Amino acid sequence: MATKTRLDAVKAMIQEVQTTNSPLLPFKRRTLNIQGLLLAWLSPWVVFTVVLALDVSPVRYHMPEVISRVVLVVMLFCALPLLVAWRDNQLSAHPSWAWYVAIAIAAAAAAAYLTGGYVFGTFMQPYYTLSSLNQYPKPPYNAISGESATQAGQLFTDAGVILFEPGSYVDRKRMMRFENIENYCVAPIVSANQTQDIDFWAVGKECCEDAALGFACGDVRDPVARSGLRQMNQVDIRFYQMAVQQAEAEYNITSQRPLFFTWHFDAGETLSDSKTNGWVLVLQASILVGVVTFVIPLGLGLTFARIGFLPLSLK
Q1: Chain segment 45-92, per-residue pLDDT in tens
Q2: What is the distance between the alpha carbons of residues 24 and 12, in angstroms, rounded to a whole number?
Q3: 106 falls in which pLDDT band (50, 70, 90)?
């Protein structure tokens, strides 16, 4: 008797639900909500792209606090679709796109902030920093009229890119490395008339392990390369300075104020490439997120249009 009563109650519930317009019943299919689908696709995509573009732009370099505020505003904005979802839940048992939109926007903003942090730190910040410094097309050694080489480090503290005089080269035989998880490699940049006083150093990481090859960082093997791109990462500089101290003791040289450069055929072009690579990554990330944010709501929409809360066996 109890089993029959329970079965009658289930049948009555099914009959009641069948009279509604729910898209979640296999025997009550509906077409996709195109407006909801577009909103679920475009909202997180636009948020991701805008936040990411701001996160790698000069805005972050000059006003880093602005990006944090933008992300906070986006997170607060997510409360709006949550309120809409709560209202829809009170008025109807139908699933609402508002829940998905709120979660997707919040996730997109967080993902953009993290992705932007990586792109900014790896590509854009070095570009913005070095672009704000001076570029010297003149050789810093023999072109310094009446100045000794020991003063070169002080005279060129504002250098971002330096084109060294013809005949300048990296003295690979006097290279030194300092090991701290990674190998921090240094070698003096010298010219034909260079003394034992050296302030300019070519540097790199994980490029001097082979004793036979010696210093092999950057374009050091290119005989016509003679430009340097300044290294400004303070963590790396600390370890390069330790390597220089070891080189001073090993080769009986002095370095009053060492400046560190990566060695390139064209340092200016390398600097421009850093900016280009950063924006290429932004574009690739935006396209990827656009595809993901399209596939997920489309799959959910197709699924919700075909499945039900109750098994067919209870019909």
Answers
A1: 999 998 899 889 998 888 888 877 877 777 777 666 666 666 655 444
A2: 18
A3: confident
Question: Which residues, listed in sequence order, are joined to residue 205 by a DSSP beta bridge?
Answer: 184
Residue 223: C-alpha distances to residues 16, 29, 207 (Å) = 84, 72, 18
DSSP letters, 29-74, are -----HHHHHHHHHHHHHHHHHHHHHHHSHHHHH-HHHHHHHHHHH
Taking the model in full, what pTM does it have? 0.72
Look at residue 22 and tell me whether its pLDDT is greater than 50. no
Contact 51, 71 (CB under 8 A): yes
Q: What does 166-224 look like in DSSP terms, one character per residue?
A: TT-EE-GGG-EEEEESEEEEEEEEE-TT--SB--EEEEEES----TTT----TTTT-TT
List, for residues 253-302, the tens digit of each pLDDT value: 888 889 999 999 988 889 999 999 999 999 999 999 999 999 988 887 77
Separation CA 156–CA 197 (nearest Å): 15
Check: CB of residue 104 under 8 Å from CB of residue 293.
Answer: yes
Question: How far, in Å, CA of 200 to CA of 197, rounded?
Answer: 10
> For residue 149, what is the DSSP state?
G
The pairing of strands 227-230 and 176-180 is: unpaired
Other beta carbons within 10 angstroms of residue 305's beta carbon come to 17
Contacts of 75 (CB under 8 A, 6+ apart): 106, 109
Q: Which amino acid, one-letter code, is at 175?
A: M
Strands 159-163 and 169-170 come out as unpaired
